[in-house]
Amino acid sequence: MKVVRVKKGVAAIVFLSLALLALGALSFFAGSSGDADGHVEPQRVRDVQHRNKFRPESELKEQLERRPEVAPVKPRTEPEVAHEEIHEQERKLEEKEENEEVDALRAKLHPVEATKAAADPENEKRKEQVVKMMLHAWHGYRNYTWGANEIKPISGQPNNQGIFGGADMGATIVDAADTLWLMGLKEEYEQARDWIRDNFDMKKKATGTLSVFETTIRFLGGLLSLNALTGEAFYVTKAKDVGDSLLKAFNTPTGIPKSQLSVQTGVGQNFGWASSMSILSEIGTLHLEFAELSRITGDPVYLQKVQKVRDVLDKAQKLDGLYPNYISPTDGRFSGSHISLGALGDSFYEYLIKAWLYSNFRDDQARRMYWAVSEKIQEKMVSHSRSNLTYLVELRNGRAEHQMGHLACFAVGMFALEGHYEKEPARKARVLNLAEELGRTCHESYIRSESHIGPEMFYFIGQEDATAKQTGANGYILRPEVIEGWFYLWRLTGKQMYRDWVWDAVESMEKWCKREKGYVGLQNVYKPEQGADDVQQSFFLAETLKYAYLTFTEDTVMALDAWVFNTEAHPLPVNKDYPMKEQAAPQA
Ligand code: DMJ
Description:
Its EC number is 3.2.1.-. About 55% of the residues lie in helices and about 10% in strands. The protein is mainly α and about 600 residues long.
């Protein structure tokens, strides 16, 4: 076996040698030269960066620092270049052989991985299709509304939402840049990077009142990921500007921030429709970003702010162990009895388990709070439909409301993560089963519609069974949660079905949501030809397409044990130094 491989290798090298010598001669006559200033080091650094593009910057720096200094060298002669190229091919062949051996060993040790190794040969095509969609979405925005927050792909006009305040903050650019980078779209990533570097300025440019939560998950989260992925230092300054701009929102008697903030005046306010209460999903979804900002700046103030919020939530009197959706920033008491894993509640739960993962399993408070509330959710909020679909109810005054939002499908990924890390076998099996059953229900909500895309809200009442045909909200606004859930299930179970479900949804979006200048939401998923909303949400590029893409990559791309996705799908590296020394320092 080995002999055959070596022979093949030698034959390939001889062939390559001849080809390269011929090419060398040709380029010599064409006057081509190597590196203009005679240095090879920059290219090597770029190679190391490229090979390590998925590693945290700290590791990358360490690796570069470990390498001996390389002195400038003379320009290489053509035969030398050819020789080096041959050497490189030899090295690649050896690497390939090694990889094959490692794959074989891994197949023995991890049957899930082995199933994946033998997966659908169509996979590359699927991945490429997602990249094409990203390019289409990006080009529409870039060509017609560059610098605006979002594009209206039908009219080609800028779209602004209240959450962004009044100014053009380039929301799509900041939200999409890490997806471009992950997909290897270098030119597009560099456009985004240059715009952020030269134009993004939260302190000077933000106007009106913006959403503290959305600014955190989209802008701060995006910048933190870009820093972690690329190591370009200016992202730290930009992220710090966003964090500093938001600090005033925490100036309340309890430290619980308000929903909206004017960056210019520093005045925060809550919504009238929320009876001036703060919202659980908003105040509970800041932890990862502020913790990471403290890590990269070395300034503990950001983590202290969100830790204080966590402490209030931890101590507050709950309803049967569950967290109502509204809380007073004045006295830290919950208000009302509406409990939901959809809108108003969702990512608070997500961030408990993710904060524990981000902390390298050391944030014990997050672990304790997550495991306790998960137990209660499983006890009080799981129901089954007449066709035996498992779903999550909402609770109001202790009574179940039999509806599930598209947003609530995020819980598929959350329970899959819990099951993955759960040690107790019976509980592990139970929660993994719950994740898969909920994933199936979210799938039914998709395939029971004409468009094969699921509605904003689906019901389990009367004739409705994971549908919204007669009742309620039947549109789709390019949301990611369902694909996100299947992404986690694919990564953690290795069942091909989840890849196929993502592909079906991707094809449906391409069929129904694509317009000349981007992608739009649908007014009615049951009558997809009826009309569209003319908004390309920035999260379509940040999340929907990213999770779809990562479903078709190797598991080593953004490996789940090294990266934690914030709720906008911006990956943050697991913090190996948690807890930071300063964490316990009293807050001023
Ligand atoms: C995104 O901004 C985030 O996923 C958030 O957690 C919920 N809403 C949108 C997508 O649906």
